[in-house]
Design a protein that fits this description.
About 50% of the residues lie in helices and about 10% in strands. The protein is an alpha+beta fold.
């Protein structure tokens, strides 16, 4: 195994995916639980985050750590916490992410700019959006906007339940804790669709630890950075990833098809835990009703890619 090289004070690209290459993020709940855990740990452990981009079945980040031990402890801790919450939600056990995680040091401004473009343009490459900042989970839109994906929130004029939820969220953040699935489910059940999106933006803004100014320093300005991302998708040759030219939109399509079939949010979240026989039925159903390729449906359903169906 190639020995991991970590340089103190330098940017490093970190890549993670699940052990079976399956989908991680099925809903906004998964993203918010992951983000608040990640940010809480980055803050507690003094890790600087230049970029973070969770994708449906893997994650990218560009971070600066003081040592190899600090980086490893940070990644292992947030990965363990998120896996615990993700598994508990789905009544599963065991590791979620593959081990060891992939990492590559980026020395010099050119390498850092290249990997920042690569990390943030993943959703563009996977045909989820046209521009990196249009993807909520690059968090680029939150640099100068507290509610880029919802209507402005006026706390003093919010309904009583919304104000109560905001108070609970603030307390959770002040206590150095993270948001759990049960909290999100409780809040969403009492809020309108508009309020729910406002709450999601509020949570992201409150926990956000991304060091935008440090990332921007490699370009001169925020607008220049975005233009650079638009003009160059970046590259990564030091971390082994599975590349194809297919779109990740199919994962959302699978969810929409199953919702139309009558599956509830709770049933959708339980998909990775279903018996193989039920997964096989859904496998053929999704193949017949989406443009997803067999491997993508297997990843969505957490079926081993080498299993012949």
């Amino acid at each position: 195994m190639k020995k991991r090289k970590v340089y103190s004070g330098e940017a490093h690209h970190v890549f993670q995916r699940t052990r079976n290459k399956g989908v991680i993020f099925y809903s906004i709940h998964d993203y918010l639980v992951y983000f608040t855990i990640y940010c809480s740990q980055a803050r507690q452990r003094g890790v600087s985050v230049l970029s973070l981009c969770p994708m449906p079945d893997h994650t990218h980040q560009v971070i600066v750590a003081a040592s190899k031990n600090q980086m490893a402890t940070f990644v292992q801790t947030y990965s363990h916490l998120f896996a615990y919450e993700w598994n508990k939600k789905r009544k599963k056990k065991g590791f979620l992410f593959s081990h060891p995680f992939g990492s590559a040091a980026k020395l010099g401004n050119k390498q850092v700019r290249t990997v920042l473009a690569y990390s943030n343009n993943n959703p563009v490459e996977r045909k989820l959006v046209e521009r990196a900042e249009d993807y909520r989970w690059t968090f680029l839109a939150y640099y100068n906007n507290r509610n880029p994906f919802s209507l402005p929130l006026n706390e003093s004029h919010a309904k009583s339940y919304m104000r109560m939820a905001l108070k609970e969220i603030k307390q959770c953040r002040d206590d150095g804790q993270y948001i759990t699935y049960s909290m999100l489910e409780r809040w969403e059940s009492h809020l309108s669709a508009t309020e729910w999106q406002q709450l999601a933006d509020y949570i992201i803004g409150l926990w956000n630890v991304i060091d935008y100014e440090q990332a921007i320093s490699y370009y001169g300005s925020y607008d220049t950075m975005l233009r650079a991302f638009h003009d160059n998708t970046g590259s990564e040759y030091e971390i082994r990833e599975d590349h194809d030219n297919y779109t990740d939109i199919v994962y959302a399509d699978c969810t929409h098809v199953l919702q139309a079939k009558g599956l509830s949010a709770r049933q959708l979240s339980a998909i990775p835990s279903l018996p193989l026989e039920q997964k096989q039925q859904l496998y053929y159903y999704l193949l017949s009703r989406t443009s997803a390729r067999p491997a993508q449906v297997k990843k969505y359903l957490h079926i081993a890619l080498d299993l012949t169906l």
